[in-house]
Model the fold of this input.
Amino acid sequence: MEPPVHRRTYALAATTAATAALALALVPHPATARPAADTTPLTSDFNGDGYADLAVGVPDGTVSGKAKAGYVNLVWGGAKGLGRYGSIRVSQATAEVPGSPEAGDRFGASVLLRDLSGDGLAELIVGAPGEDVDGRGADAGAVVVVGGAKHGTGPGSNALLGPSARSAYGWSVAAADLTGDGGRDLVIGGRDKVVMRAAVDNGENLVVTTVLATPMGGRAPLLATGDFTADGTDDLALAYHTINAPSTQSHVRLWTWDEAERRMANTWNSDNGAASALAVGDFDGDGLDDLALGECREIADENIDDPCGPESYAKGGGIHIEYGDAKGSFGLRSQTLNQDTVGVYGVAEDGDRFGASLAVLDWNRDGRDDLVAGAPGEAIGTRRAAGAATLLLGHAGGLVDKYGEATSVPYHQDRPRVPGVAETNDAFGTAVATGDYDKDGTPDTAVGAPGENAKSGGVWVFPKTSVTGSVALTPKKLGLPSPSSALSYGRYLSSH
Done:
């Protein structure tokens, strides 16, 4: 029986010609540089057919007999949506990709499709945190950029390699114009460190600068970008938390580019609030970027503040939203909701992990962004951790209206015309992504269920026109090798 809906939410490169060409492509031409933030949509069309594509990272996949070498599956969009036009597999065994597959590289642990060069084709940005680098050590990590192409893949290069053993560069990646020159800069998360690779001086120079180095609890730092200072240039949101490593602490911080110092400067902090996901959107339609913290909870012992709202909202996971302010006072207004909020599908229960993944879209085309929140621990009936996702609609006041109520739509495998059946440990909702994969003018939603089919995994694609009637993309259906092994397909999607 379904829980009720309450009725009352981006340096080091090889010296080949192909690599040099790609590196130049990633630097903005002075003639096209813009002083203000780039408002052009960030295309995810890798093959140039006019349709958005989906990148699925499979870091646990075996390549050339090397366990957990990892690969990325690029699924093509088309007039009928994802899953009907085939896909390609990209790995370090692909001719254009630098390096070679080695056990434990975990190529695909972070994936991003972004048009970095402005040529209309998306580049594939891939993190391989387990990459061993000669002279630097094991698990130094690497971030690889692979050029888009109409057929196959374009030239690839290492955008950045970890400086030392266990740096694990590539745990997380983000790309945006953070310097305000019209180009795309890369932010790379590693073990206890976040760095930025920026093109400066009209693309004539590259700067690699450390954003933050501090204990991060042995997990990937969360990265998101948006114009939080309302100055026309993108900023960086960074979240991390530690538990007894060496202390218990949790932070969400905002960083903006300081041109004089050629580095990122910390401009805003919210301490004591731990998050599992970040997402940026304009949820109240005021033209300003807002920041959503998924599965937000307080873990520090100081009890200085309640950055995620009432402590009771931590039960089962909650979503906390910091809203933009026209005068630059970001976070002056905030909201928090969970599955006990009126209008939100389900009931808040320990282990639900509501908000563990987040993705943004304007589902109903009303000019306000909406939010998809995964809850991979949600029980469907008696099936523990079958998982679900919830679409939360934006209102004039944000994800919660002036009456303190929300509007939501549930996604899970026990809904009519959704392929498959909700089963224990499917973990549906572990990752979510959005894109207009069928080019009908409205975004669609992709939901990962890495525990499906004995952990072979799968991705469910919901077209905008129907929350039900989705398409299931499984490794077997896509012709991927070893579909019955523990691939966890669907754990890493291009907006995750």
